[in-house]
Amino acid sequence: MSLLNFRKKVDEPAGENPQLEAFLDGYSIEVMPRTAEKVEDFTALLPKGTRVYIAHIEGTPIEDMVATAKRLSEDGYPVMPHFPARIIKDAATLENWIAMYQGEAGVDQALLLAGGVTTPHGDFHSSMQLLENGAFDRAGFKRLHVAGHPEGNKDIDPNGGTAMVDEALRWKQKFSETTDADMALATQFAFEAGPIIEWAESLKEAGITIPIHIGIAGPAKLQTMIKFAIACGVGPSLKVLQKRAKDVTKLLLPFEPTQVLTDLAAHKSANPDSNIERVHFFPLGGIKTNANWAIEHGGASARPATES
């Protein structure tokens, strides 16, 4: 589908794009324990009910993860901690982590992923193994998200292409049909709407109906954005940043997700049955910066809890 069919100008006043406001409604955002510590009051930044993912980076003590989950839960936010398979030693560790999250923070949802570690620390190496273990079903988790890769993943398909990624998605689709938990694909971030939309439509054509929560990089300095994009293996849409970097007048300006989200919002408005369901923010330029951008562009749906 051509972007010409739904591209909308982004030079209109902030907060006056009903399509974008509707698309941002119910967005989620990701934090880490160390970034969450810098936020004095989440309720002054995030709308009520915002799902907050907690990224579990190798070396982060589980106690810090659970403490962050408890704080956010007590503030009234549904919490979705990461469970990176490759840093979980064994089934007993997995069940212990689940029990800690449930007992101290009332967690009933999780993002399952392989994790960025090359060599597994123990028995698990993929999110599919975590799902097969059955621990989340036994614990009564209501929502399980898994990773999606609109531009492929060279860690999974090192020779390029999407054969292994696609096979994993077919497996996850079958699993989604057997679990009572709601599932969604939380994707890696990208910078162009066209490839994202084409990928989403290709999944529907392949019979993969798991809803998609599109990963979007929040506002950040261009140099920061490029650094994270390369580190995270962002694909062809990296050229959007590279083109921007050639303009020396823009090097010191923040890169904002206005264009990609405006295009995606227009597509969703024109195609309400699209499997693209929600926006998930990676706040690369900081949680406060990201939240304020969402408030500016998301209207009433993005106002913080203290203003609702």
UniProtKB/TrEMBL annotation:
Molecular functions per Gene Ontology: oxidoreductase activity
UniProt keyword Oxidoreductase, yes or no: yes
Domain of life the protein comes from: Bacteria
Keyword set, alphabetical order: Oxidoreductase
InterPro entries on file: FAD-linked_oxidoreductase-like
UniProt keyword annotation of Oxidoreductase present: yes
Name listed for the protein in its UniProt record: Methylenetetrahydrofolate reductase
Organism this protein belongs to: Octadecabacter ascidiaceicola
